[in-house]
Design goal:
- The protein is built from 10 helices and 6 strands.
- With 251 residues, the protein is α+β, with helices and mostly antiparallel strands.
- Strands 1-2-3-4-5-6 form a 6-stranded mixed β-sheet.
- A hairpin with a 7-residue loop joins strand 2 and strand 3.
- Helix 5 crosses helix 7, helix 7 packs across helix 8 and helix 7 packs across helix 9.
- The radius of gyration is 20 Å and the shape is elongated.
- The chain starts with 6 loop residues before the first strand and ends in a 5-residue tail after the last helix.
- 31% of the residues are buried.
Length: 251
């Protein structure tokens, strides 16, 4: 049975072609961690499947978004600064260049998959890996954050700060909360480093990236602890501290 899809607004991406993508984190699925909504026109939200998504998993999420108690319509309308009372008729999505329109009447995810298969150019029986997995588009937020974590070295203020960090990692391994705090701090620092290397200013990215890198659902207390650790150890900790002093109640 398909479950209701609940989402949380994360940020708005500005694409190179001046298209704004509203990014929503799904709260009820580990298989499809986020949705990218590229427009809301005529009562329909146009959603991009993240790269690597399976059609069956994506169809379940879409059906869940159209259930009466889902907050998906509210978050989409809010993300595009539309009146939340605007009519919401359904969702359009393009999966491997095949466009499907789904309305509230479409309550069977298997039927959506069958419609997609019928319109697909590729024979699903002959080449399922091409057919059922989204080939193009953005990585999911989680995949992007974890990729940056794997490929980026965290920068420290100095050798003393680096050793202090390493000792924290060593002693926190026995405590789940401490491990979660340091994991969040590391992901957040590396993610900001990646954006800053592309020309972004820390005060432009700190807020949105703080939400994006929260993969485990940290508490406010854990967030404050992560901040204090980064203030003391991270290369850009002083800038982060100045940002936080100007925005102390964001989380």
């Amino acid at each position: 049975m398909v479950k209701t899809t609940y989402v949380r607004f994360v940020t708005t991406y500005q694409e190179a072609n001046n298209v704004s993508l509203v990014c929503l984190r799904t709260m009820s699925s580990h298989k499809v961690s986020c949705l990218f909504v590229e427009s809301f026109e005529g009562g329909f939200a146009t959603v991009q499947p993240p790269k690597g998504t399976y059609i069956h998993d994506f169809a379940e999420i879409i059906v869940g978004c159209l259930m009466e108690n889902s907050n998906f319509p509210f978050e989409v309308l809010s993300g595009f600064n539309r009146d939340v009372c605007d009519t919401f008729n359904g969702i359009k999505f393009k999966f491997n260049n095949v466009t499907i329109t789904v309305t509230r009447k479409d309550t069977d995810s298997d039927e959506i998959c069958k419609r997609w298969e019928q319109k697909s150019i590729v024979d699903i029986n002959e080449n399922p890996s091409v057919c059922i997995i989204q080939q193009n588009g953005r990585l999911s937020i989680v995949d992007e954050v974890l990729y940056i974590d794997r490929t980026t070295k965290m920068e420290f203020k100095n050798e003393y700060a680096k050793r202090y960090w390493e000792n924290l990692v060593k002693f926190s391994s026995e405590f789940s909360e401490g491990h979660a705090i340091l994991t969040y701090a590391r992901l957040w620092a590396k993610y900001m480093q990646n954006l800053m290397a592309k020309g972004k200013m820390l005060n432009e990215i700190a807020k949105d990236s703080s939400y994006i890198c929260d993969l485990e659902g940290i508490s406010v207390h854990m967030y404050i602890c992560a901040l204090k650790i980064l203030f003391a150890t991270w290369k850009y900790g002083n800038y982060l501290e100045n940002w936080y002093k100007a925005n102390p109640c964001l989380y």
